[in-house]
Amino acid sequence: MHSTPLDPDRVVTSSPVRAAAGPQHRDAHSGRIRLSGGFALLLLCVALFAGVRLILAAMGLEIMGMAEYSALIPVVAAAVLPLRQTLIVGVANLAAATAVYGILLRDMSRASQVTVLTALAAALLISLAVCRARIAGERRLKRLMIARERLALLSEASRRVGSTLDVARTADELTEVAVHRFADHAAVDLFDPVLQGEEPARGPHRGPITLRRTAGRSASTGLPATAPPGPAVTYPQGSVPALSLTTGEPVHVEVKDAAARGCWPADPGDAGAQALHSALAVPLRARGVTLGMALFTRSERRDAFDADDVLLAQEIAARAAVCVDNARRYTRERNTSVALQRSLLPQVVPRQPAVQAATRYLPADLGAGVGGDWYDVIPLSGARVALVVGDVVGHGVHTSATMGRLRAAVRALADIDLSPDELLTHLDDVVIRRQAEEARALAGGGVAAADIGEVVATCLYMVYDPISRSCTAARAGHPPPAVVRPGAGAEFLDVPDGPPLGVGGLPFETAEVRLPEDSLLALYTDGLVESPHHGLGEGLERLLKALSEPMCSLEDACDHVLDMLVDDRPRDDVALVVARTQALDSTCAATWELPEDLAEVARARDLAALQLAGWGLTEAAFTMELVVSELVTNAIRYGGGPIQLRLIRDDTLICEVSDGSTTAPHLRRARTFDEGGRGLFIVAQLAERWGTRQRTDGKTIWAELALPPTPVPAAP
User: Fold this and answer.
1) Which residues pair with 534 in a beta bridge?
2) Contact 131, 81 (CB under 8 A)
């Protein structure tokens, strides 16, 4: 923590009269030191010419020509000396000539004396006029040069400050512009909420004021002295920076001792001509809110800040404050978009019996804005799992909201166990309807064109069955998935590419492949493999290379892939899902084929009870027998062969009954005197979940039952 005390004797107000006096006095002092040699030489010439005149007069020689040389002395003084010194030299020259020619009055006529003295007096007046004109011209030229330099500095600040929408980078650009050309050291302190994209508390500020040193730069190194986030800087109440923040006006100070240099930006170890002696604090205000403060200091080798410097610093700070506020507002909007994006993505990937999965999501760089990439790991019936990755074209909150709708739609469609190609067909209809809704809203004038856009998305949907170890996939304009089989290198699965979602009119195709246990699947969005530094083909090759390298865990694999393929400032969002397949063997699943005979219902109950006894789950046998009895009875009575019963044990007990009919049953509430309609109602009451999924040769009705609680052993 840094703090600075208040010394009222050192504070200099921003009054132009008082502030301008220091530099002018310093310039005059420098001028006397620089021109004292010429002034003394011209006074010596005056005395020398007077002595020569006396000597020549004593020798009786003609001395009229000496007056002409004497007239050159004030002319030379007018060309090299200030106005006061020119006047002294000219008056001394006229006085010496008057004394000399006064001695020689007997030898010269009155007219000659008057002529000589008049010529010398006229030379003096002309020299003074020329000197005054020269000094005025020099001052005008100096003012023009200074004004030109300040305008150039102001133009450079307008061009360079605010090139990005990053608060810390904008503050560093301000110090980069100010150092060398305006100050020897510069720093920017901002309130902590500004760095988070929030608006700081409005004043007045009372008590100590704490800011964050966001940027700092020194002329000696030329490199940033502060890497954000920098240290906290506390200014006591009444200190110079606190006074500037409280009043909202720039304050500059003459630093006269080492104790007052603690909080001002400077090089450590500065001393002598390098030690700072003039400091300036300028508040950064935009839209009526104080965001922080800019600090500038100069060392002994430069003139102190004057009134024009204060105005220039105030103008630069005002423009920089607008850029900082724009970056702050963008940071807030981006944080909102990223929070919305992350809230629409799965917060935790649940444990699945089919796969072990690890996921990553990286938002785009600040300049691009948040995109519409998403992923999901969806549990399905029969211990299966669906892996989904999608990408909505575009950036911004509208894209994130569209992404959330599509993910919800995929969840709903996956819940009814559609095949991948059918799911993408229905999802394509959802996107097309969304486009029609936005077109109607735009035509009706309900929303602005900037608030909506064309909805186009890509998607990859895969279903993996851990019992058959088959993987079925379909994609809509999305990059193909990669797979790494045990003992082999990485390769891309040959999944037929369909049109992007929202195009419509074209079918989607599926590809089915059998994967051995412990195979590695990688699903990703195009932001992972596309980059300005390399083409798509090179990105795909780098992905295969990264996946082929063995990793200890899926988390390490995700990090390794991102490190190899993603730049520090990605231009597009990146979504990545890496999953390792698992298999359920015969010890976790049992299957029986049943004839179309109602007498087989009792046998099915016995088979289920024996299987649960073998699994050590006799407590769940009664409930499972009821479920098996109802489902098998319905399949035999209303479905038709072939009929299959399958039990699966994992985190839950799953009962599946398949038949040859494609007619899906419906749950209804039976009346008092109805003879049927209670079977599915009983199943729904006993099971945690139940449902129906279609197959190519019929349908499957499934129900999930909770495992009985594991008994806790008694304490000895």
Assistant:
1) 531
2) yes
- Contacts of residue 653, defined as CB under 8 A and 6 or more positions apart, other chains included, come to 612, 617, 620, 624, 647, 704, 705, 706, 707
Q: How high is the pLDDT of residue 275?
A: 67
Query: E strands of 353-396, at which residues?
Result: 355-362, 371-379, 385-395
DSSP three-state, residue 660: coil
What token pair was written down for 152?
């150039």
Three-class secondary structure of residue 290 per DSSP: strand
Q: Which two tokens stand for residue 668?
A: 């209804």
Distance CA 166, CA 367 (A): 9
Q: How far apart are CA 531 and CA 533, in angstroms?
A: 5
For residues 134 and 518, give the distance between their C-alpha atoms in angstroms, rounded to a whole number. Answer: 91
Q: For each successive 10 residues of the chain (716 residues), what is the average pLDDT?
A: 39 37 39 60 78 69 63 80 82 78 62 75 84 84 80 85 87 89 89 88 77 85 63 84 87 70 58 67 90 89 85 90 90 80 81 90 71 89 92 82 89 90 92 84 60 76 93 94 91 92 86 93 91 82 91 91 84 90 86 88 91 89 90 86 88 89 71 59 86 86 84 54
Give me the pLDDT at residue 120, please: 77
Distance, CA of 714 to CA of 716 (rounded, Å)? 6
What pLDDT, on the 0 to 100 scale, is given for residue 416?
87
Residues 6+ apart with CB under 8 A from 379: 350, 352, 385, 386
Describe the crossing of helices 72-80 and 83-103 by its angle, rounded to 10 degrees. Answer: 170
Q: What is the greatest pairwise CA distance in the chain? A: 164
Residue 150 in 3-state DSSP? helix
Query: 């909805």: which residue's tokens?
Result: 455
Side-chain-facing half-sphere of 411: CA atoms under 13 Å: 13
Q: Which pLDDT score is estimated for 491?
A: 93
Helix 83-103 / helix 16-58 crossing angle, nearest 10 deg: 20
Q: In terms of DSSP H, where are the helices of 304-419?
A: 307-344, 397-415
Angle at 441 between CA 437 and CA 445, to 5 degrees: 170
How far, in Å, CA of 104 to CA of 99, rounded?
9
For strand 355-362 and strand 289-299, is the pairing parallel, antiparallel, or unpaired?
unpaired
Structure tokens of 543?
């992905």
What's the pLDDT score for residue 164? 84
Residue 235 contacts residue 242 (beta carbons within 8 Å)? yes
Closest CA to 174 of 296, 261, 289: 296
**Any idea which residue has 């197959």 for tokens?**
695
3-state secondary structure string across 661-689: CCCCCCCCCCCCCCCCCCHHHHHHHHCCE
Q: Three-class SS of residue 147?
A: helix
Nearest residue to 253 (alpha-carbon basis) of 451, 19, 554? 19
Distance of CA 538 to the CA centre of its chain: 27
Exposure pattern of 80-112 as b/e (b: 16+ CB <10 Å)? ebbbebbbbbbebbbebbeebbeeeeeebeeee
Cis amide prior to 229 (ω within 30 degrees): yes
Q: What is the pLDDT of residue 710?
A: 64
CB neighbour list of residue 438: distance below 8 Å, 6 or more residues apart: 447, 452, 453, 455
Both tokens assigned to 237: 């109440």
d(CA 257, CA 277) in angstroms, rounded, equals 9
Please tell me whether residue 283 adopts helix, strand or coil conformation: strand
